[in-house]
Amino acid sequence: MIPTNYYLILSAILFGLGVVAFIFRRNIITIFMSIELMLNAVNLAFVAFSQVWNHLSGQVFVLFVIVVAAAEAAVGLGIIILIQRNRQSLNVERVDQLKL
Amino acid sequence: MNVPLIVFFALAVIAVLGAISLILQKHPIHSALSLIVVMVALAGLYLLMGAEFVAAVQIIVYGGAIMVLFVFVIMLLNAGTEERTNFSSLAKFAGLPLAVALMGCLAAAVYSSNEQVQTVAQSGAPAPTKALSAQLFQEFVYPFELTSFLILVAIVGAMVLAQRDRKESHL
Amino acid sequence: MIDTLTQKLNEHWDLIISLVKIGLLVFIVLTVNAYLTWFERKVVAHMQSRWGPHRVGPHGLLQPAADGLKFLLKEDPTPNGVDKFTYYLAPLMALALALTSIAIIPFGPDPIVIFGHKVYLGIVDLNIGLLALFAITALSVYGVALAGWSSNSKYPLLGGLRSSAQMVSYELALTMSVVGVLLMAGSFSLRDIVNVQALHADRGIFGWNIFPQILGFLCFFTAAVAETNRVPFDLPEAESELVAGFHTEYSSFKFAMFFIAEYTSMITVSSLCAIMFFGGWLSPFPTTWTFTHYLPSLILIPFGLFVIWDGIRYETIFGRIILPGVGTVITILGALLIAFPIVNEFIQGPFWLLSKIFIFLFIYVWMRGTLPRFRYDQLMSFGWKLLLPVSLANVVITATVIMLRGH
């Protein structure tokens, strides 16, 4: 039906686009969203391989990745709120020094 | 050109367009909406592969909880459109081709990989939730408990980080 | 020519019959929505000792048509400074998601046989049906949140944030309260949940899931009322509180889309309650009492005669023509059911499901007419501190009992 490498190529493209978004965007929240995009690309690769080898641990691992991404998003957004409160800016170029 | 292939290409195009829109949009909330589109397209791809529980969890947790958190934070912090500071020309002219080169490299690595991985066809058979939960609670029970602990830590951490200063209330 | 047509029909049967079912179901759901608004206004009015709409058409039955016309023809201003894309996306998203959730609900057990193909009542039977419904519920938070934010105004923003925080909080209790039913059924598919209750159909009403799962049902119904933003949980959109909450800046057709989305989710929740806890299309009488199969006719014929009698004495001439006509149609329908036993047997399942849905919709409207609304902090503490622990306790109790009994 659909060869596995189609899924893997799509996963590679999405991962690459996530890296591009991470490097080129200046808003902290958008950078964070690009991290989520990269995690999603990796999830796609996991599920594709789980189908190839007919083994369910790929999908179990995807569940764990989703859970860890949720925990990371919660804490990360808390940090972003603090950054906004202390420096009044969400531009990552203003947050590059410890001094306020 | 059978129907699963057409569905795959449609969903793949939607996912890639959503990711490109994530990069190009000026306002963070439009980027968040593009990311939701990517996630729903990926959930469709998981359904195509037969991983139905993972698809449902992807929409419920990722699309319905994590992205809601992102949208809330964008609304609460009143994140506006990005200001453009000056790029160095090197970044503009070298960055984008390098990014395309990275993607090409990854894709080529996949394409020239092991023959067996290439030609195994996706069966699209539904993965029963019972088998998945049996694996989750028997073989992977330690990681499961550890992730629940991790979530507890994240909840406490997020609450502590985002709370208002206590000093203001002791007036 | 006819041969090639029938051959093409048989080849693409699934696609064609799905499209026909979707069109029919969307049409039926939108009509039921319109008359649900009429029903709500009438019932709330009678509870408040007044008449409700009774001028437009006999007994106000053409009021939804008048409202629909108004929504279509009203001026549609867009406020200054809104985020155009999100402003137009939010009602679309709300309506699309609400209508999609109707596709998963099964309406009857037996298939109709058309042209030799079996056609099941209900568009699709997913084996993760319940989970898909929760996915759609999870996504519908966006309709509210984006509507509130994109309106570029204080009150909608506050209403949207409050409403979406409320929906996210009650989503947890909603999904947890259903796990008891899932443990008993062993499957996410809605047909399987009813079929497991059908195993005890000889006990009638005692075979339903409501008696083992009374706690789960109460949690589910409360959480579902909060999810659909209805009284007593409608603080974020009530008129006297935050102007009109997240849909302040929306008018005419976009407001109608939010409206339709809310009533459609009411219908979905009512059918879920009926399917999961009250046996779906099973009759409350034991299956050995076959004389109860005449109940649909027994209800339809007196109701039709009452409508005729009331219509003859109605005040306007239009009513004196229409109402007896409607009454005659209803009476003839009831008589036809007695005349054709095959149709009567087939109609039993959908009849019971539709009556249960109707009863739940009545309870929704009844609550609207009677209960005061929660304050926002009371609402949130109720969701997190009472409903979530109770639904978790329900899961633990159900799992323990199933383990001890060895099902």
- What fraction strand of chain C? under 5%
Uncertain ranges of chain B: 117-121
Calculate the terminal CA-CA distance of chain B, rounded to whole Å.
72 Å
Percent helix of chain B, as a range, is: over 70%
Care to describe what's here?
With 100 residues, chain A is an all-alpha fold. Chain A has a single domain, classed as Helix Hairpins, CATH 1.10.287.3510. Helix content of chain A is 77%, strand content 0%. In chain A, helix 2 (28-52) packs antiparallel against helix 3. Chain A is elongated, with a radius of gyration of 17 Å. The mean pLDDT of chain A is 89. Chain B is mainly α. Helices cover 75% and strands 0% of the residues of chain B. The longest helix of chain B has 25 residues, at 52-76. Chain B is globular, with a radius of gyration of 21 Å. The model of chain B is unreliable at 117-121 (pLDDT under 50). With 407 residues, chain C is mainly α. Chain C has one domain (2-288, 340-405). Chain C contains 14 helices and two strands. In chain C, strand 1 (112-114) and strand 2 form a beta hairpin. Chain C is globular, with a radius of gyration of 23 Å. The model of chain C has no long low-confidence stretch (mean pLDDT 87). Chains B and C meet through helix 2 and helix 3 of B and helix 4, helix 5, helix 6 and helix 7 of C.
Quick tags:
heterotrimer; A: mainly alpha; 77% helix; C: mainly alpha; two-stranded antiparallel sheet
Lay out the secondary structure:
The complex is a heterotrimer of chains A (100), B (171) and C (407).
Chain A: H1 4-24, H2 28-52, H3 57-87
Helix pairs in contact in A: 1-2, 2-3
Chain B: H1 3-24, H2 28-49, H3 52-76, H4 89-111, H5 115-119, H6 129-138, H7 141-162
Chain C: H1 2-11, H2 13-47, H3 63-73, H4 84-100, E1 112-114, E2 117-119, H5 129-139, H6 141-150, H7 154-185, H8 190-198, H9 214-227, H10 252-277, H11 295-312, H12 317-339, H13 341-370, H14 376-405
Antiparallel strand pairs in C: 1-2
Give a short synopsis of this structure:
By secondary structure, chain B is mainly α.
